[in-house]
Design goal:
Helix content is 30%, strand content 16%. By secondary structure, the protein is an alpha/beta fold. The protein is elongated, with a radius of gyration of 29 Å.
Length: 295
Amino acid sequence: MMKKALLIAVSALALTIGAYAAPSSKLTGSESITMENIDSYMDASARFIDLRNYADLMNGGYIAGFENVPFFQYLEGRALLRNTGWKFSDADIKDKAVLENVFGPKDGAIVLICASGTRAGYVKAALDSIGYAKVYNAGGFKDYKGKSKVLGDGSYDGQMALPAAVDMSNIDTYLGRTGAKYVDLRNVSDKYKAGYIDGFEIVSFFEYLDGNALKRNTGWKFSDADVVSKSVLQNVFGSKKREIFLMCASGTRAGYVKEALESLGYEKVYNVGGFKDYKGKRKVLGDETFTLTLK
C-alpha cells in the first residue's frame, strides 16, 4: 500500500511538472508569444530582435538576449518604404535582399519587439509576405515586466559624451551633434578672407550682437548689466538645453558670449577658442583678396 501511494504521488508530481514545463526549444509558428510570457521562450531556437533605435535601448532599457536591428535607422529606406503609413502592402518592399540578409533563413523562428508593437507588426507582415513562416510580434517593450530587463540610464541620446573641454584640438570629433548649434562670432568678411570651419554658422558679434543684444560696459569683462536684449539672444541661440559651441578669432568674443548665455540659464555652452589655432580636417580656406561689398 505504501509503495502504491508513493507511485501515485510521483506520477502526480510528474504531471504537475509537465504542465508547467518550458516550451519546446523548437518553435512551430503557432505559439502565442507576448510580453507576459516571453521570458519562457528565451531559450527557444530563434532570433530575438528589437526594432527600436539603439538610443532607445540605452535610454529606456531592453530585454537581455535581444539583438538590435533599428527600423527607422536601418530598415526604413533601405529595405522597406511605408507608402501608406503602418498598413503594409507588397509595394512597400524596396529591397527583398536586404530583408533576407538581415533576417536569415525563411524557416527560422524570429521574435520581434519594438516600443508598442507597431513596428514589429509591420515588419512581421513584410517578412510573411516574402515567405517567412515563423515570425512573431511579441509586442512592445513598454509592457515588459519580466526578469530579463536591463535598465536604461534615462538620458542617453545616441551621442558621444562631451569632455569637460571642447577646443580647437578636438572640435572635429564633436561636429554634427544632433540639436547642437555651432556659432562663429567673427565678422562675415573674416569667414571668407581667413577661412572657416565647415559646420559653423556666422553670427557676427560686432556686426550684430554688439549693440542689439549686448553692450560691453567694461570691455570684455561680462556683467549682467551688459545684456541689452534677452529676447534677441534667445532668438539667435534657441533652447537653453541645447549644446552651443562658440568660436571667434582668438576665443575672446566666444568667452564673453558664453558668460552672457550662462547668465540667462544656458547650461551647455562651450568656448571652442580661436580659428587661428584650428588644425583640423574641416577647414575651408579663405581668399585674402575678398572684399565684402554691401549694396
